[in-house]
Specification:
Length: 410
Amino acid sequence: MGVVSLKSFAISDPSTSNAISRLAEQIGKVKINPDFVCAFYDCEHDDGLIFEFVKQRFPNAAVLGGTSCSGLMSDAGLAGAMSIGLLLIEDPDGDYGSAAVKLDADVASCAERALYQALTAADCAGELPELIWIYQAPGREEAVIEGLRRLVGDRCPIIGGSSADNTVAGNWRQLGPEGPMSDGLVVGVFFSSGGIGFAFQGGYEPTGPNGIVTQVAYDPAGESGIVTRARGRQIIAIDDEPAAQVYNRWIGGVLSDKLAGGGSILTDTTMYPLGIAAGKIEDVTHYILVHPDQVLEGGALSTFATIEEGTRLYSMNGDKTRLIERAGKVAAASAATLANGPGNLAGGLVVYCGGCMIAVGDQMPRVSKAVSSSFNGMPFLGCFTFGEQGFLLDRNTHGNLMISAIAFGQ
C-alpha cells in the first residue's frame, strides 16, 4: 500500500526560464512521481513556459494553478514577487483529475461541465470526490459554486481561490490541463488515500454596528448580451440610506473624502470589511467577509462578493496581528480534522487573501512561519487570491479576506 507524499518547490527570479531551470534542478534532487501538480506564480511570469515545463516533466499528472498576487509562500518561507511555486502530490492509491473551461454567460453550466470532465479525467465518473479544488477568474464565484452544487450539493467541500494579479488590473490567469487562460475555471477532484482535512475562516471581529441591505443593483448586459459582473455586487442602500454613507459611519469616517467623488476604496477598507453571519460553532459566531472596493455614483458600494437584499451586514474590524495569527490557526484546524490527527499530516495547500497579504505587508514572513509551524514543517504551498471559496458550517460558500487550508493525510 502506497503512502501519500507531498513536495513543495519555490523559486523567485524575474526570468521565467531561469526560474524553471532552478525548479528543475530542485525537483531533480528528490524522488517523486506526482499524481497532482499545483502551480502558482506571479502574473509577470510567462505561464506558457510554466505549463510546457509541467506537462513535459509530469505528463500523467493532473494540473491546476494560476496567478497569485505578488508571489506565494511555502514551507521554505515567503517567496515574494516574481516567484513560481509547485506542490507535487504523489498518491499511488488515490485518484486525481483536473479540467478547465472558459466561462461564458451560463457560468453555472460551465462549472458543472468542468466537474464532469475532472471526474472523468480521474477515472471516477459518477463518484463523489473527497474534495473539489477550484481556481478561477474573479467575478462570478457564486455562480461557479451554484453549478458545482448541482452535482454534489454540500456533500463534499469545495475549496479554492480566485486568481489574482499584482495591481487589480485584471491581469490574472488560470492554469489547467490544456494550458493558461484568462477568463476560466479550473476544477480539481481529490480522492485521497490518506484522507483530507480542511478549514475556512476569516481573521476579523464584529464591531457592533449592523443593518439590513434594502436595495442592490443588477448590472445590465453589455453590447454582447452577456452580464459581465455578477448580480448583487452593488449595494445601493442599507436601512434605506445610501450604502456608502452608512458604511462610512460604521467605520468612523474613513471614507469621508471619497463619498462625494467616489472611486476605489479597496486599500482603505481592507481592515474594515462587511460580515454576514454564517452561524455558530461552539457558541462563537462565524462570518463570511465581503470586501467593498468602490464608492459609486449616488453613494452605492461595489463589493467583491454577491449580497442579496434582506441580508444583515455587520461592520467588521481586523488588525495585522490577527491576520498573521489566523493563518496558522486555520492550518492547525485543517490538520486537526484529519482522521488520524495532525500526526498523520503529509502536507497542505493554503489560500490566503491577497488583500490581507497587502495589508500585512512586510510582516508576511510571519504568516508563512505560522502556517509552517502549524503544519509541523511539512511541505505546503500557499497562494494569494482575490476571492476565497470554502466550506463553512456545512455549506460551500464564497467570501473575501478569508483563509482556507487543506491538509493531506499520509
